[in-house]
Amino acid sequence: MIFYFSGTGNSAWAARQLARLTGDEVYDITNLKELPDMSNAKQIGFVFPVYAWGVPEIMADFVKNLSRKPVFTFGVWTCGGDAGHTMKQFSKLYPLSSSYSLRMPNNYIIGSDTDNEDEILQKIAAARTELARMAQEIQRQEGVYRVHEGTLPGVKSRLVNFGFNKFARTAKPFFATDSCNGCGQCAKCCPACVISLRDGKPVWAAQCLQCLRCINECPQQAIQYGKSTAGRRRYTIRVYLPQNEQ
Ligand SMILES: Cc1cc2nc3c(=O)[nH]c(=O)nc-3n(C[C@H](O)[C@H](O)[C@H](O)COP(=O)(O)O)c2cc1C
Description:
The protein has helices at 10-22, 57-64, 86-93, 117-139, 153-168, 185-189, 213-217; strands spanning 2-4, 26-28, 43-49, 72-79, 98-103, 145-146, 174-176, 195-198, 201-204, 223-225. The protein is α/β, with parallel strands linked by helices. The model has no long low-confidence stretch (mean pLDDT 96). Flavin mononucleotide (FMN) binds next to helix 1 and strand 4. Residues 6-11, 49-53, 78-82, 104, 106-108, 210-212 line the site of flavin mononucleotide (FMN).
């Protein structure tokens, strides 16, 4: 049983790949009306993106209420570069038998531009190989810690993560430019359901997760975040996947 959260599709794809390779079921936590029956789960996995070297709040809230089962558990954090001590944060909420970070294309276009096309393709190809290896280890129920923590993981996962959640994770800078045609795709696809249309333009409520699906998926590229995202490319994994993996 694999639970995932994903903004721009990296973690969704990784979760689906792992489920296929290990013969498991996969659930998007934002679509769950009620918890599936976990009594026969042979393993429990969590897949989600690293946010400021920590666990996205929506995933933290989800696992806090999840009953603990005496089965093999694993976590896979997708990240553009490094994961810091995300695993330490997470395993305080839900104990894990295995932890992995998985390098995937960067979607945090508030901080920097996306990876270039070659890097994106290389990261996805390398992730495929790594997921196949993970699947074998998971099936053997091997305890593995293969996490790229990066430099100063403690500082990043405590101080920077605290600052991100307290100050940086604000929806206020989001706005739609004149290219917005009011299609409402942003409101429809928002996993936190915090976008509504006012006079045909999106407005964001404060509970935004900052997953950046809206800005990356806008068909008109009409969404910006303050001054930081103008001129930057957009990223969603869908564009790079064969039809049967989307
Ligand atoms: C708010 C936010 C914060 C992020 N922080 C980090 C980070 O600390 N380290 C990192 O390597 N990547 C970071 N990223 C990049 C994502 O973790 C990475 O692109 C991930 O694979 C996106 O997954 P998704 O497509 O499932 O949403 C961040 C992305 C967002 C949106």
